[in-house]
Structure formats: structure tokens, C-alpha cells
Specification:
alpha/beta, Rossmann fold, Dihydrodipicolinate Reductase, domain 2, 10-stranded mixed beta sheet, 6-stranded parallel beta sheet, 18 strands, about 30% helix
């Protein structure tokens, strides 16, 4: 029998903490020596999960690899063996393989200290909750969850359990994001007026798509892949610009190009969270930090066609932030996708070099009264101040000590999984722990809430509700949970 979590109880704000504590728990070792190896399980073993695993495998034991596709689990195991061989590691532990993370917990919970969750977005919540229930430290790929209600419930449960947590947004561990905050707070570009953000995503199918029932590929445990989502047959898809297939048409086969797994789930609301979910927690991260880790009060949205099943081909958002003690009321804009055959990017600030802006498929611009900060990629790893004259002035201010380093730097830049694992054994709090990454994810996902609502929404972060459009609140929580995955 699988252990189960009562999701509905978790999502009741008033009782989430009490419920998390009331469930039977299995206590792990909770005191580690500075050089001690953790026993870590990875859920979502190949792709991003493989790089996440390798980020910690040189220091810790990987004791389990879970992937709904056994072919991918076996490939991840081979990749891990090669990783150890290339580093001449003396690790003797051989990871056990599973397609269902519930079975992994049933079989191995006593020997696991921590869990990496790198699955499609929709299973971040149940997989991480199973880890929390078993008192396992947990790191989850971005976004934390693809519904705001799940983000809040997971955050509360993990905090109540006293676990070391992390979200996999690399930029949060890098120096660039911290430098931007220091520059803006200490007047490097004058008073901040506006922020512009963009990405070339989606680079997978979105917009109206047409499903076709298909034969499940060998090795794929489709039931486990679906997780808590409504049961349905395995399917492939196309753009829907033709009649549905006839009843006697042979079933299509497909694993990648026109299949939802293992990559194209990103454009489907049930499983992913579109361009925002894929890149927002990276590109919006520096903005979130600069603005005092606050949540917007209003979000406006326009986009290409949105369906009940899939995210749009392009979208444009305006996040409105109220004035604070240090900043005026301002707007943060977001552009994604392609529009009319061209990248859907914001207007270039005149201080940003035209050639540099043209090359930036993703990026961010912080516009101030005396200068502009431009970063032409997603992680804010190498931001620059414009104009050139203003940059020289700021460099002089830094050299003289007028602009100081005030933000603590990560010991493990560019490696959030290693930072998390070492936070467990060394006793420090990781940069993107859930206290930080839960509200960041909420900020990001409010854009999807506005896109799906089809109009501007006003958000009360205290109650976790849309205040101007009751119908929009149906997008705050997942609509249903399948029996056995509650």
C-alpha cells in the first residue's frame, strides 16, 4: 500500500500546518558532520534531473533514481556511473531504479536523507509533499509548483517540518543578481522607474493543440507520469488545423516531436506552466529581489489565443507594484514568444546598445532616472550599467567605497543543488529556500492567472485571492486530484 497525502486538507489555509504535523512522520538523521555524505534520491532522473543529480553526486550518495519512463531511469543510471568514473570516485552505492516515487518511498524511506525533485511541473507538488511527509530535506526545480495554492501549501508544510529547502533557480546563487540590488539601492542609476523582462520561450508547441490517442511507448509508466492529474489515455498532438482522426484510423506512435512527454508538457496547463513557468523564476528573480521580495497588487495581460488546455503562443504582462519606503509605484513588464513572425520583445531603452539588445533572446532592463542596467540573458550573471559614462562613474563609486557590497554571496555560485546539500551538512540556509522561492513563484504564476482569466486581476496576497474577478480564483488551485495521488 502506498502512503498518501490528503491534498485537500493541505490546501485549507487554516489547517495546513496542523495537518502536516498530525500525519505520521518518519524522522531522518538530522545532525550531520561537515564532511558527511547524504543519501539522496532523485525524482525525475534524466534531462534537468540528471544535471541536478550530478551537481551533488561528487560529494554525496545517490541511492535512488525515479523516472516515469524506465528507459530514462536506466539512462540516468548509466550517466551517473560514467560521472563517477570520470571523477575517479570511490562511491560504492548503486542507485535503485523506480518509475513511481511512492514505491521508492515505501521501499527506501529509512535510508534517504534528502530528495531532488526535477519532474514535469505538475508532479513537483505531490513528489515534494511525499518527501516532506517523510521528513526529507527537499530541493525542487523551478517553478516550485504550477498552482499558487500548491506553492503555499508546500511552503507551509516544509517550514513546519523544519526542513532545508531550495528551488533550482541558478541566478539566485550568482553574484550578478546581488550586484544589481546593491547598485539600485545605492543610487547607481538614480531612482528606479521601470523594469522590462522578456524571453524567446516557448520553444515547444503552445496555442490551440489537438489531441490524438496513441500507443504508450515501451518503458513509459503513463499512470505514474500523470500523477495526480485526471486519468486519460496516452496521447500525441498537432496544431488542430484539420478534422479529428476517424475511429478506424490506426493509433499514432510518438515519443518526442508530437508527444507530451518527455519535453512538450510545458505548454499544457495541466502539466506545465508555459513560458512563464519555464523562464519566469529565472528572469524575474533579480526583479523580485530588487523590489524587496514583494508581490504585485495588479496584473494586466494580453496574449494570443488561450484555451482551457494550453498556454498561448505569446503573451504580454504588466505587473503593478505599489510604492514602498524606498521605491515609487512602478511597472514590471513581461514579453514572451513570437508575434507576427518576430520575437516578442519590449521596446529597447535608448541607453542600451542596439546590437546588444538585438542579440538578447532573453533578458532584463532596469531603467532609472540616471542610468540603465541591462542583462542579455536569463540568470542575471553579468549585468552592465549604461551609459558608458555612467558606468565609469559607478565603477569609481564602487572603488571609493561609496557603493558597498551589502548582499551576502553564495558559497556555491551557479549550483543551487550543491548549495542546498551543503546547507544541510554545514548548517546554513540556501539562497532560494522556500521562504524566498515560494513568493517568487507566486509572483511569476500570477501572470498565468491573469492570462487564463483573460483580463486584469487584482491580487490580495494576504488572503491568496483575486479581489476583482471571482471567476479567476478557480485558477489558484488545481481543479482535481486523482485517487491515490491526493
Amino acid at each position: 500500500m502506498h502512503t498518501r497525502i490528503d491534498r485537500r486538507t493541505f490546501l485549507r489555509t487554516g489547517s495546513a500546518l496542523a495537518t502536516a504535523m498530525a500525519m505520521p512522520t518518519i524522522l531522518p538523521r538530522n545532525v550531520f558532520g561537515a564532511n558527511e555524505k547524504l543519501n539522496i534520491a532523485t525524482i525525475g532522473a534524466l534531462g534537468k534531473g540528471q544535471s541536478d543529480t550530478h551537481n551533488v553526486a561528487d560529494l554525496h550518495n545517490i541511492v535512488a533514481l525515479v523516472d516515469a519512463d524506465m528507459n530514462r531511469a536506466e539512462a540516468a543510471a548509466k550517466g551517473l556511473a560514467k560521472f563517477y568514473e570520470s571523477r575517479k570516485s570511490d562511491t560504492k552505492v548503486e542507485a535503485k531504479l523506480y518509475t513511481d516515487f511512492r514505491k521508492m518511498f515505501d521501499a527506501q524511506h529509512a535510508g534517504i536523507d534528502a530528495v531532488i525533485v526535477s519532474t514535469p511541473d505538475h508532479t513537483h507538488f505531490p513528489a515534494a509533499m511525499w518527501a516532506v511527509r517523510h521528513k526529507k530535506h527537499v530541493t525542487v526545480q523551478k517553478p516550485m509548483c504550477n498552482y499558487i495554492g500548491e506553492v503555499r501549501a508546500l511552503h507551509k508544510a516544509a517550514k513546519a517540518a523544519g526542513l532545508v529547502t531550495q528551488m533550482g533557480n541558478q541566478g539566485r546563487t550568482m553574484d550578478g543578481q546581488r550586484a544589481v540590488k546593491e547598485w539600485i539601492e545605492q543610487g547607481a542609476i538614480g531612482t528606479l522607474k521601470e523594469i522590462r523582462l522578456w524571453t524567446n520561450r516557448p520553444i515547444w508547441p503552445q496555442g490551440p493543440l489537438h489531441k490524438h490517442t496513441a500507443e504508450t511507448p515501451a518503458g513509459l509508466d503513463w499512470d505514474s507520469w500523470l500523477g495526480q492529474e485526471v486519468e486519460e489515455p496516452y496521447f500525441t498532438f498537432d496544431d488542430g488545423k484539420h478534422d479529428a482522426p476517424k475511429a478506424d484510423e490506426p493509433k499514432k506512435k510518438g515519443r518526442r516531436g508530437n508527444a507530451v512527454a518527455p519535453f512538450n508538457w510545458r505548454g499544457w496547463w495541466a502539466y506545465g506552466s508555459g513560458a512563464l513557468g519555464d523562464m519566469g523564476c529565472h528572469i524575474m528573480d533579480a526583479t523580485f529581489n530588487v523590489l524587496g521580495r514583494r508581490i504585485p497588487v495588479k496584473i494586466e495581460a494580453k496574449s494570443s489565443e488561450v484555451t482551457d488546455l494550453t498556454a498561448p503562443v505569446w503573451s504580454e504582462l504588466v505587473y503593478h507594484f505599489a510604492a514602498s519606503d524606498t521605491l515609487p509605484a512602478l511597472k514590471v513588464t513581461w514579453h514572451d514568444g513570437s508575434k507576427d513572425g518576430k520575437p516578442n520583445k519590449p521596446e529597447r531603452d535608448p541607453l542600451v546598445p542596439e546590437e546588444a539588445f538585438a542579440k538578447a533572446s532573453s533578458g532584463m532592463i532596469f531603467i532609472g532616472t540616471e542610468g540603465t542596467i541591462f542583462e542579455p540573458e536569463a540568470y542575471c550573471s553579468d549585468p552592465k550599467i549604461y551609459s558608458e559614462e555612467r558606468r565609469k562613474d559607478v565603477e569609481a563609486m564602487i572603488k571609493s567605497g561609496k557603493i558597498k557590497q551589502t548582499e551576502a554571496r553564495s558559497k556555491y555560485p551557479g549550483n543551487p543543488q550543491k548549495e542546498w546539500a551543503q546547507g544541510i551538512v554545514e548548517g546554513f540556509t540556501p539562497s532560494s529556500n522556500f521562504d524566498y522561492s515560494a513568493p517568487l513563484t507566486e509572483f511569476v504564476m500570477l501572470g498565468n492567472l491573469a492570462i487564463r482569466s483573460g483580463q486584469a486581476v487584482s491580487w490580495d496576497t494576504t488572503t491568496g485571492k483575486v479581489t476583482n474577478l471571482e471567476s479567476a480564483n478557480r485558477f489558484v488551485n488545481r481543479p482535481a486530484y486523482r485517487k491515490g495521488w491526493e
